[in-house]
Design a protein that fits this description.
6 strands, six-stranded mixed sheet, Rossmann fold, globular, 7 helices, 43% helix
């Protein structure tokens, strides 16, 4: 049997070997890519999620080109129990926006404005006339509770409501607040099970819960990394 009779078999073997080497190279490349992605996340964190505001308006507030006024309203039932909730949310959300480079109207001015108005209606036109702002971000709390239903000795914060955003524009020499969008929000904390009031005082829990609520609301207006609320 001569040497030529072995040539096809050799060629097949070489093709197989070449394929195995290529496959190992591909696995190595994929492995390296995954390792690089993992290293990137370790160094820089997960990529940021686009904010609700930016997605719906195509504007990035963190560039500092637009001014935002944050206002909050609560139902009478909440107002009777926690009279400071409105101002706590205005202050907390505004402070977080400022830290992310957003131009905001001073919350002290908003508090003074609320004091001057006996009742806060759901109409933002007065705010558009009285403040030099580009947007009004209205946090409309519908329900707020710190206790587990029917369990006064168990703490679990629950809040529902709406965020209504208005763009302020001039029409016929008048400043008008035009609704851009409205979305719902809800927060239950802690999610898995309530906390005993004996292990944590109501005042301490209230402060902690409002902090989480302010984080949730503020992140609707700037890009953020996933999971930063908790």
């Amino acid at each position: 049997m001569n040497e030529q009779s072995f040539q096809p078999g050799r060629r097949d073997a070489l093709r197989t070997l070449s394929g195995l080497i290529g496959g190992l190279s591909l696995v190595s490349t994929v492995g390296c890519s995954k390792m690089l992605v993992g290293t990137g996340k370790l160094l820089f964190g997960d990529p940021k999620l686009p904010s609700e505001f930016t997605t719906l308006t195509k504007e990035d507030l963190t560039k500092g080109l637009k001014t935002v006024l944050v206002i909050c309203s609560t139902p009478e039932s909440v107002e009777d129990d926690i009279s400071t909730l409105k101002l706590d949310l205005i202050d907390g959300v505004t402070r977080r926006l400022r830290l992310h480079g957003v131009k905001i109207i001073n919350p002290d001015r908003i508090a003074d404005w609320i004091d001057e108005h006996d009742s806060l209606s759901s109409d933002p036109q007065e705010l558009a006339r009285d403040f030099d702002t580009d947007y009004v971000a209205w946090i409309d709390v519908q329900g707020f509770s710190l206790h587990e239903p029917n369990s006064p000795k168990l703490l679990r914060g629950q809040t529902t409501g709406y965020i209504r955003v208005f763009k302020v524009e001039e029409h016929n020499d008048q400043r008008m607040a035009l609704k851009v969008y409205q979305t719902e929000f809800a927060l239950t904390y802690p999610q898995h099970q309530p906390i005993s009031i004996q292990g944590r005082g109501v005042d301490v829990f209230h402060k902690d819960y409002v902090k989480h609520l302010c984080d949730l609301l503020a992140e609707r207006f700037y890009d953020h990394r996933p999971g930063t609320t908790f």
